[in-house]
Amino acid sequence: MNFLELNKIVENYSSNSEGYKLFTLLDKYAEENKIVVVSIDNTATLSSSFLNSSIGEFLDKYGYDFFKTNVKIKTSKTQFNRLSNYLEKYNNLYSC
To answer: Where would a tag sit more exposed on the chain, N or C end, judged by fewer CB atoms within 10 A?
Structure first.
């Protein structure tokens, strides 16, 4: 299993360009069909721009089920709930 510490990858949690940095790494692991654990600082506030350019791009490319299988999130309950809400909304909008 591979581990990514988000605060060591990005400078902030608010811009598309920083979100894309996370997407690039997730994409690399996905292409190798490897599972990755993303550790998110409990104090981080992930903007919708950041999420759309990282998790959203990943979901667009690989789909919701692949994300659930290959990407694990380690964070606070508050952050986890926000990400779960984001994933649920994405799945409801784009599932066929």
So the answer is: C
